[in-house]
Amino acid sequence: MGGYGSGRRWSCKATTSGYYRLDVRWLQRKGLLLPGRYSPLTWSRDGQPIGRINLRSEIDRVILSYRHRRLDESWQEREYSVTLEWTRCYYGGSRPWFRCPASGCGHRVAVLYGSVIYACRQCHQLAYESQREPAYRRALGRAQAIIERLGGTWADGFPDRPKGMHYRTYRHLLQRYEYAEACSWPPSLLKALHRR
């Protein structure tokens, strides 16, 4: 308890933010999963294109085609299919999923991350950005999100109940905010305050 090597272990995994992201839910909302549809997709940073992929939709799959290279190697053309699976929703309709195309995987996922091959987060051994944040930062983010949900800003403090919001919902959000705010102090600052 508290000995050498105990405590939180920092992962050496790369994070999802460094990879191109292909979200099947976004593709469906944009109508890009309709059979026979051909869609060139681009990723950009600061208004400049940084990545491109061509997506061709069929009844039960999408075909991805793109060029890829590693460091100083030459460009390689890639084209392969990703199986789509549809599940029924409780209140009607259906939801699409990708089946991860990586060899030996086949997990049902909503998002594929691009590298040499577009595959699920587990196949690329990726962590979410939030998994790298200390607990107090995550708590601070939760507190800020509650304030923004109520239409306020961090500088103005906790906002009044919005018109039309149920009192019980507002009180519940206030309790969640107070708990998150109490957890959002960095441990080093708390130690300094206790010493005074």
Tag the structure with descriptive keywords.
196 residues, alpha+beta, 2 domains, six-stranded antiparallel β-sheet, two-stranded parallel ribbon, globular, disordered N terminus
Description:
- The protein has about 200 residues and is of the alpha+beta class.
- The chain folds into 2 domains: about 15-125, no CATH class; about 135-195, no CATH class.
- Helix content is about 25%, strand content about 30%.
- It contains 5 helices and 10 strands.
- Strands 3-4-5-6-7-8 form a 6-stranded antiparallel beta sheet.
- A hairpin with a 5-residue loop joins β6 and β7 (about 95-100).
- α3 (about 135-150) packs antiparallel against α4.
- It starts with 13 loop residues before the first strand and ends with a helix.
Short note summarizing the structure:
This protein is of the alpha+beta class. It is 26% helix and 30% strand. The protein contains 5 helices and 10 strands; from the N terminus they run E-E-H-E-E-E-E-E-E-E-H-E-H-H-H.
- What's the number of domains? 2
**What are the segments in which pLDDT stays under 50 over at least 5 consecutive residues?**
1-7
Mean pLDDT: 81
- Strand percentage lies at 25-35%
Biggest sheet strand order reads: 3-4-5-6-7-8
> What is the number of helical segments per DSSP (H or I, 4+ residues)?
5
Order of helices and strands: EEHEEEEEEEHEHHH
Find the structural class using helix and strand composition.
alpha+beta
**N/C terminus separation:** 28 Å
What gyration radius follows from the Cα positions, in whole Å?
Answer: 22 Å
Shape: globular
Strand count: 10
Q: Describe the main β-sheet briefly.
A: 6 strands, antiparallel
The percent range for helix content is 25-40%
